[in-house]
Amino acid sequence: MAKICPKGFRPEDLENPTPIFHLLYAQTVMDGRWKLMILDYLADGIKRFNEIQKHLNNLSQGSLTKQLKEMDTDGLILKTIHPEVPPRVDYQLTEKGRDLLPILELMVEYGEKHTKDGNYKNHIKA
């Protein structure tokens, strides 16, 4: 996981975290170009690497690997390597990852509400 704050926090901020600390933590674990889409896709259940890659329009192997590694390190997903030849690797959400799903649903509602006027075109590239 990346640093929560570019300037860091004082030790007392970590001993007595404030609401903004918790907000920045949540933002940090979801930060990454593809993480929200990966979380949403894994909500349906266990997926293999190639399935995720195809769902993300054949995102490069390196980019997907980086995002999945960060999500695994942060405890959002569980990576299971099956001892087969060739190895089979499965990914699924952990409880910590599933706890983010209601936030994603709220983000969808927000997006639906605020894209009705067409002013989203500055923010979304085709």
Automatic annotation (TrEMBL):
InterPro entries: ArsR-like_HTH, HTH_HxlR, WH-like_DNA-bd_sf, WH_DNA-bd_sf
Domain HTH hxlR-type: 5-119
Keywords linked to the UniProt accession: DNA-binding, Transcription, Transcription regulation
Tree of life domain: Bacteria
Pfam families to which the protein is assigned, alphabetical: HxlR
GO MF annotations, alphabetized: DNA binding
PANTHER family from the UniProt entry: TRANSCRIPTIONAL REGULATOR, TRANSCRIPTIONAL REGULATOR, MARR FAMILY
Name of the protein: DNA-binding HxlR family transcriptional regulator
